[in-house]
Amino acid sequence: MALSHLSSTRSNRLLRPLAAAASSLCRPISTSTEPLVIETSIPFTPHKCEPPSRSVETNPQELLTFFRDMATMRRMEIAADSLYKAKLIRGFCHLYDGQEAVCVGMEASINKKDCIITAYRDHCTFLGRGGTLLEIFSELMGRQGGCSKGKGGSMHFYKKESGFYGGHGIVGAQVPLGCGLAFAQKYNKDENVTFALYGDGAANQGQLFEALNISALWDLPIILVCENNHYGMGTAEWRAAKSPSYYKRGDYVPGLKVDGMDVLAVKQACKFAKEHVLKNGPIILEMDTYRYHGHSMSDPGSTYRTRDEISGVRQERDPIERVRKLVLGHDLATEKELKDIEKEIRKEVDEAIAKAKESPMPEPSELFTNVYVKGFGTESFGADRKELRATLP
Amino acid sequence: KKTSLVVVRSDGSLNLNTGSSAGARRLDQLVTNAVAVSASLLSTSSTSLAVLIHELLLYEALREGLEEEMDRDNRVCVMGEDVGHYGGSYKVTRGLADKFGDLRVLDTPIAENAFTGMGIGAAMTGLRPIVEGMNMGFLLLAFNQISNNCGMLHYTSGGQFTIPIVIRGPGGVGRQLGAEHSQRLESYFQSIPGIQMVACSTPYNAKGLMKAAIRSENPVILFEHVLLYNLKERIPDEEYICNLEEAEMVRPGEHITILTYSRMRYHVMQAAKTLVNKGYDPEVIDIRSLKPFDLHTIGNSVKKTHRVLIVEECMRTGGIGASLTAAINENFIDYLDAPIVCLSSQDVPTPYAGTLEEFTIVQPAQIVTAVEQLCQ
């Protein structure tokens, strides 16, 4: 908290002369790839391992990409919020705003052959893995153009080519699946890793410890990432967990606690974790993050926490603001340019929504496709061996 | 080693699948029941070559199928409790760990939820794991993974992922194993959309179904029975698979159709002997495919005999027999002369005492009585 206050005053001091000069300078946004070394806001807390250094190497282009990606995600989630209230998105809609730094930082340190698997708060992770806004909004509205053809919904986004394995509704069930992905990577001798994300609520699931035991036993290249947003739906972490240090829960498995609102810290931690895991077996990363919305759209989010808390975090730890300050502080772009980026993003999102609204609903025959894979041994989908005879409206 | 693949249909006719060695080989009629083979069947007929067969027990047949598939495709791996160094609690995987190594035959800790989930996760990437439950009842702990992830991922991902996993294990009522180790899970799994269920009953169909299940792109649950592992039969040397969705005609007949699967097949065949002596001619069909039902074979049989008796080991409530009764009633009501009778186990936890355990499941005498009543 103290550090962010410092950086804000520093950027204020820097901004004043710049603001005056900006209007007359017309300098383009920096796209240089010269390395820039930035210190993370707080040090990493290790458990049974050596923490990585606080100095993160990045470059202006990367920082601006971070800003753009996170701003797109933020805008997308807020647009999803209004679509839900307009009843275009139904069912459950779990929004990720506030936690964008985790998925953006993770993406920056890995490639598309590494696998990511997460729970139901997956819109932004899907976007980070190469999904398009159109696919996301179409799927949320249940249209044909969606990534799962409209049949999955908010909690079932997948992208096999980019190594994104979903999108799972049952809390904790994705962690054994993640271990299976890591097992396949080890089986195929891939040199890639799997990131299995789960929340602080899911950290109390038994299958997690089962999967952890097997992964540690078989040296699987898996990184378990606990996105600790401090609330398991409506229950605060201190009311659900006897030991809220989720990074220590692995006991014999090393762990690292990371400030999940600092995208550079996340990037550093994931890079460190990937190297560690390919040599030494599993590791647990705890990302200390926060969600501004409630658990889902049906949860107001204010019955179990105060509005002051939410706005406090928004003011002091917001990941996008932090990157904005870095960018302005290092004179990589002006305020106006960043605002222009945000306007552009807003327009992109609105266009994607409009296009998604035009996408048709799935055909009635789609009800029966993809239940089984056609081919060896399977010739039917109904109880009889002929095509289903019922005709649908 | 021959590589042509032969698909053998249950009535003994065959489809040569790879068009190799044009027409030169014809196989003699293959034995499809577990009763001792009479010498006359083995004698070579004038136009065909001798059948190469070997005799083995059901668990050995399963192992053979498993080994052949593991040899053929190195993405196939087995995971389960005690399948590796111990050789499998029912010896199905004996020797495989030595042959294929620890990465392909994996001893897991006792964590069904986790290793079933792991199998499904590995299958999502393209591996073909076989998950063994030491007893089917233990897989109840993995029900979430089987139902939500195994069955539904192909659908909810819009077809992006296929889950070519095989989940197998022994279930059913054994010899006084107690309530928790005598469960019949086919009734719990039958409504999960997206999975296929098959039950093997003879060494011949055990090997064939195992191979077909491994090659299938869909998740398949293969139900074995604790008491059938030591059945002996002669099976062909040649490679063969059984169709996953086909029922097996055990004994053709005219008067009544008896539908059964797994161990109850033997109770039915025993009852059939008595029935034949009494002058009845039952048609016995081992349905083999529990999901989806082979209504083609069943329907043809119903059209012929007009009477149906279902004998199963599942509980009465919500069992396979209940679904089968509904399916036959819906599709073939015009051909039925009498209501369908379904003989199932009693809706009780299986007791330990031997005599009580006998009363829980269907016995041949009950089958004979039911047939006599139906055929009046």
TrEMBL record, chain A:
Entry annotated with the keyword Nuclease: no
Q: Which InterPro entries match?
A: DH_E1, PDH_E1_Alpha_Subunit, Pyrv_DH_E1_asu_subgrp-y, THDP-binding
The EC designation for this entry is 1.2.4.1
Gene3D superfamilies documented for this protein: 3.40.50.970
Q: Where is this region: Disordered?
A: 296-315
Residue ranges of domain Dehydrogenase E1 component in the record: 68-364
CDD domains the record matches = TPP_E1_PDC_ADC_BCADC
A GO BP entry: pyruvate decarboxylation to acetyl-CoA
Q: What does this protein do?
A: The pyruvate dehydrogenase complex catalyzes the overall conversion of pyruvate to acetyl-CoA and CO(2). It contains multiple copies of three enzymatic components: pyruvate dehydrogenase (E1), dihydrolipoamide acetyltransferase (E2) and lipoamide dehydrogenase (E3).
* Protein name listed in UniProt: Pyruvate dehydrogenase E1 component subunit alpha
**Which species is this record about?**
Linum tenue
The organism that produces this protein has a lineage beginning with: Eukaryota, Viridiplantae, Streptophyta, Embryophyta, Tracheophyta
UniProtKB/TrEMBL annotation, chain B:
Give the keywords, sorted.
Chloroplast, Metal-binding, Oxidoreductase, Plastid, Potassium, Pyruvate, Thiamine pyrophosphate, Transit peptide
One of this protein's Pfam families, by short name?
A: Transketolase_C
- Which cofactors is this protein said to need? thiamine diphosphate
Among SMART domains, the record links this protein to: Transket_pyr
Give the EC number(s) listed in the UniProt record: 1.2.4.1
**Domain Transketolase-like pyrimidine-binding intervals:** 56-231
**Location in the cell:** Plastid, Chloroplast
What Gene Ontology terms describe what this protein does at the molecular function level?
metal ion binding; pyruvate dehydrogenase (acetyl-transferring) activity
Name the catalysed reactions. N(6)-[(R)-lipoyl]-L-lysyl-[protein] + pyruvate + H(+) = N(6)-[(R)-S(8)-acetyldihydrolipoyl]-L-lysyl-[protein] + CO2
One Gene Ontology CC term in the entry? chloroplast
Listed under subunit, the entry gives: Tetramer of 2 alpha and 2 beta subunits.
Q: What does this protein do?
A: The pyruvate dehydrogenase complex catalyzes the overall conversion of pyruvate to acetyl-CoA and CO(2). It contains multiple copies of three enzymatic components: pyruvate dehydrogenase (E1), dihydrolipoamide acetyltransferase (E2) and lipoamide dehydrogenase (E3).
Fetch the NCBIfam families from UniProt.
Answer: PRK09212.1
Q: What is this protein called?
A: pyruvate dehydrogenase (acetyl-transferring)
This chain's source organism reads Linum tenue
